[in-house]
Specification:
It contains 29 helices and no strands. By secondary structure, it is an all-alpha fold. α4 packs antiparallel against α5 and α26 crosses α29. It is elongated, with a radius of gyration of 32 Å. 52% of the residues are buried.
């Protein structure tokens, strides 16, 4: 019997080591064809892939030295792709910070393609993330959606990064059922200490989209604290924190963060970031009524934005000018500035930020058409209501109560213009919600609009109470131009002395009176909350309404008001 060890390798392995002549010739032909095709390839990635395939066929043909030479050449091509990718990434980042953002986007997409050909997935992800940022800054919704789809399925991206971009891609398709859960998941993972560098900022944006402003502020603050060492990201993160405060109606804080960011951006030569920060400063100046500062910041932001193709700074600057017109009672001028932002009719528009401009546009429309004939008013209000629908749909999907209060405010403003008989009920719902969840500025805007509607319905007594409350709240948040507008409306409603206040017994509810007495006795809000078995937030809410109803601004004035009432 034949010894198995003397029989040599099994038949299968003998065929692999020395293939039949016909098969060997076929592999040789394939290897030669692929090598020639590699020479004709137009890009390094295709050339490297064909050389690698040629090397594999050479190995199968039993030509190990030839296979090694082809493999070495393929690796060299990949190294060339990686080097070119680094060059394009550097060029793209420079353009993103201080040049034309369209050029940045193209260079960054090319860098991602080169890194993909070089089998460098982490570097490819970095280039894709910056390319997405360039598309966002340029207002390129199609480009951003494409980048979001690629990042959302990228194997090197952390799960929270993929969640964010999947959520954004779904939102751009109006697939809110998929978008909201993905964005919520992304926002919850932004505080991890070992997170990818892009995660905190993306999580902050996700929280902001969902209306969770306090969480967005916390995430932006954490990201800024981590970036305290490497100063290269500080201007961008300060800009993000300023935008969070802008959305939260904390305009003074937004301005302070933007001032710090602008100083850092100018020092670092980041002109595009500086333009966005100037847009934020223009918004803050518009709210406080500093027309000169608003126009100066807006002019500078628009100058850089138009030269470099930046849509976010251009939108913020134009929005600030429209808001200033609205505050200074020039609603028609405001409509002309804001309409292109919400409809995308001109070069200044952004696929995501346009929704935030909608409330200002709706209010401007309602005021601008107030003097038109009834059919024209109803037609204009119907068009504004259609535009408002985009915000309503997103609010319904996210459950954002602050945004819902804004929607109710817009509906009430439109009702006061198109159907005055329905205004009371609409404003009642808006005011009830905004007093519970809205900022002081939002509350004051709703009170002002309600007071104006009541005055036009010839109910000056009811109007004065809301207008007085609006004036006090505007003054409290530093919106002096809006406070002056409330004073004008009070004078038109027959209030000769805006400082005059009604007697407490006629203006305070029993619960408000209880809160006011405890505060006047020197107790803190938390002590009052414990005494009355209510939350600290409830006491804050009642005390703001007491100050508004009495036309006072401090606890000292509250003591005098209650003393006069008891006397």
């Amino acid at each position: 019997m034949r010894d198995p060890q003397a029989a040599g390798p099994p038949p299968g392995s003998r065929r692999r080591a020395r293939p039949p002549e016909r098969t060997r010739r076929l592999h040789v032909r394939c290897s030669s064809a692929l090598a020639r095709a590699a020479e004709r390839a137009e890009d390094d990635g295709a050339r490297a892939r064909r050389l690698a395939a040629a090397a594999d066929h050479a190995r199968r043909a039993g030509l190990p030295r030839h296979a090694t030479a082809l493999r070495t050449l393929s690796l060299r091509r990949k190294a060339v792709s990686a080097a070119r990718g680094q060059t394009e990434l550097t060029r793209g980042l420079q353009a993103l910070r201080a040049g034309e953002v369209i050029n940045a986007r193209e260079a960054l997409h090319l860098a991602a393609a080169l890194y993909r050909h070089a089998d460098r997935p982490e570097d490819e992800l970095t280039a894709l993330l910056h390319a997405a940022e360039a598309s966002w800054t340029a207002g390129d919704g199609t480009g951003y959606a494409g980048a979001a789809l690629r990042i959302g399925g990228h194997g090197a991206a952390p799960e929270e990064v993929r969640d964010y971009f999947r959520g954004v891609a779904a939102a751009l398709r109006c697939d809110h059922a998929r978008s909201v859960p993905a964005l919520r998941a992304a926002s919850l993972h932004g505080a991890a200490a070992d997170a990818h560098p892009a995660v905190p900022a993306l999580a902050c944006r996700a929280a902001l989209m969902l209306g969770d402003v306090s969480h967005a502020r916390d995430l932006a603050g954490r990201a800024l604290a981590r970036a305290a060492g490497p100063q290269r990201t500080v201007p961008e993160l300060l800009g993000l924190l300023a935008l969070v405060e802008l959305v939260a109606d904390n305009h003074a804080r937004a301005g302070a963060h933007a001032e710090r960011g602008l100083e850092a951006a100018v020092a670092a030569g980041r002109h595009n970031t500086a333009a966005q920060l100037r847009g934020t400063l223009a918004m803050a100046a518009a709210v406080r009524g500093d027309a000169a500062a608003c126009r100066d910041h807006a002019r500078r932001a628009l100058g850089t934005a138009q030269a470099h193709g930046l849509m976010v700074p251009a939108l913020l600057a134009t929005w600030s000018l429209g808001l200033l017109d609205l505050a200074q009672q020039r609603p028609r001028a405001a409509v002309e500035l804001l309409r292109p932002l919400v409809l995308g009719e001109s070069g200044v528009h952004h696929f995501a930020w346009r929704v935030r401009v909608v409330p200002s546009f709706v209010e401007a429309v309602a005021l601008a058409v107030a003097g038109l004939p009834a059919p024209a008013r109803k037609r204009a209000c119907r068009q504004a209501r259609l535009i408002l629908r985009t915000l309503e749909e997103w609010t319904e999907a996210t459950g954002d109560q602050r945004a819902r209060a804004t929607v109710l405010h817009c509906r009430a403003v439109l009702a006061a213009t198109a159907a005055p008989a329905c205004a009371d009920a609409c404003f009642g719902r808006a005011l009830a919600l905004v007093e519970r969840v809205g900022s002081e500025f939002a509350q004051a805007r709703t009170k002002l609009a309600f007071g104006m509607a009541l005055r036009r319905l010839r109910r000056p007594g009811d109007a004065r109470a809301h207008l007085r409350g609006a004036m006090v709240l505007f003054e409290a948040c530093g919106a002096e131009v809006w406070a002056e507008r409330a004073r004008d409306e009070m004078r038109a409603a027959g209030q000769a002395e805006p400082g005059a206040r009604p007697r407490p017994a006629a203006s305070l509810t029993p619960q408000q009176l209880r809160v006011a007495r405890h505060v006047a006795e020197g107790r803190t809000n938390r002590e009052v909350a414990a005494l009355l078995a209510v939350s600290h937030r409830t006491v804050d809410h009642h005390l703001r309404n007491v100050f508004a109803a009495l036309g006072i601004r401090s606890r000292v004035e509250l003591v005098h008001a209650l003393t006069a009432h008891q006397g």
